[in-house]
Design brief:
Oligomer: single chain
Radius of gyration: 24 Å
Strand order of the largest sheet: 10-9-8-11-12-13
Bound molecules: uridine-5'-diphosphate-glucuronic acid
Structural class: alpha/beta
Number of helices: 18
Number of strands: 13
Largest sheet: 6 strands, parallel
Low-confidence stretches: none
Mean pLDDT: 96
Amino acid sequence: MAMIAKQCPDIQVHVVDLNQARIDQWNSDTLPVYEPGLDEVVREARGRNLTFSSRVETAIRESNIIFIAVNTPTKSFGIGAGRAANLEFIEKCARQIAECSSGHKIVVEKSTLPVRTAEAVKRILNSSAKDATFDVLSNPEFLAEGTAVQDLLKPDRVLIGGESIEAVERLAQVYGRWIPRERILTTNLWSSELSKLTANAFLAQRVSSINAISALCEATGADIDEVARAVGSDSRIGSKFLKSSVGFGGSCFQKDILNLVYLCEHFGLREVAQYWEQVVTMNDYQKRRFSERIVRTMFHTVSDKKIAIWGFAFKKDTNDTRESPAIHICRDLLEERARLVIYDPQVPEKQVRSELEAYFQDASGRLSDTHKGLIETNVSVVKDVYVSALDAHAIAVLTEWDEFKKIDCARIYEGMRRPAFVFDGRNVLDRKAWLDQGFEVHSIGRPGIT
Ligand code: UGA
């Protein structure tokens, strides 16, 4: 919305949310998300044609086009728990829009939704509206965190699905102010909804594919980065999204694939469901494999050993930790009674602790005294990467922050126990330099070398 406001100064954009604390942050100098370049975009438009408030009803009344951009997390209860999307917030929005609207409104689904959700939204709008008419469009978002501003400025494509040609055209004109028309694709509603889930499933599948091969590389002596380069040089395959890692994270990939799996099952397509579910299974395997490799390599015990964790965000250039592989690996290592010293340039201590606590909770949301105690005594969070490695037995690199590439490995080596183990879960360190320094380096997709 900030980008629309920036690019179209004559369009008034009102961002509304029930969470006043969050709105206050959007109105302050410290935005609630860390995203390179976003501060400038917001600063340019805020107060001119971009407002943030909790006046939901007024905003609905005053707007011609309404974007619904609420959470659609995986359901944690009832039918479809653990797979289906929770559509509670979408439905509440649709009801509120229906109640406050008059005249004609275009309602745009921006949230990622299961196929045919637009049908439900339409029914709710039309059955509860007093004196208003609606067109419903699907306009999924394809930006990635960390590169959001560039992705919005120069998207590969914008997708608009809808039945009404006029409504589709109206939204296309907004994007058309800065995006070439040939990049604005229009489809029917269901294709648009399904394309979003499919795009994320394909991307996640590439990561799981390369990660699957990384296990084979470790077993055979092949090098995953060399394999990725050779494979990705085929223009039919392409080189992007072939970076082997400790596993994919983020709020979208797993949620969207599970949602796709649930849809397939719903339509009786068992083999299709199983096919996509394997992408998530492989990702879980990759995370588990990494922590097991750490334990196995360190003489089958990490109990009471100090391990520096470099990076807690699910990828670089974001402070988002939702579904971060780091949470899983830290949990595995804590279960083995390791002492963790966590460093991430953007993630605050409070967030690290609450993620770990949430992950240790049982199904009824209870945190056992043992786990609470473990997080209190065995986890510390520091603000200096060099401090994190002092007296450590090992380092585990879990996020590919650029600053890790420039670290003075001699300085790190001086302060560490021997043998000094490094487990590079993102293949970002200069392997030769670290080996020459005396480290025992274990990288994803390469056999360990001392
Ligand atoms: C993803 C999609 O890339 C966006 O197009 C989509 O709009 C977004 O989800 C969404 O649905 O909201 P995002 O999750 O922000 O974006 O980040 P990605 O760059 O896709 O990375 C996802 C995860 O895959 C990260 O943990 C990343 O480290 C991992 N990854 C990515 C790899 O391990 N290897 C790669 O080669 C690429």
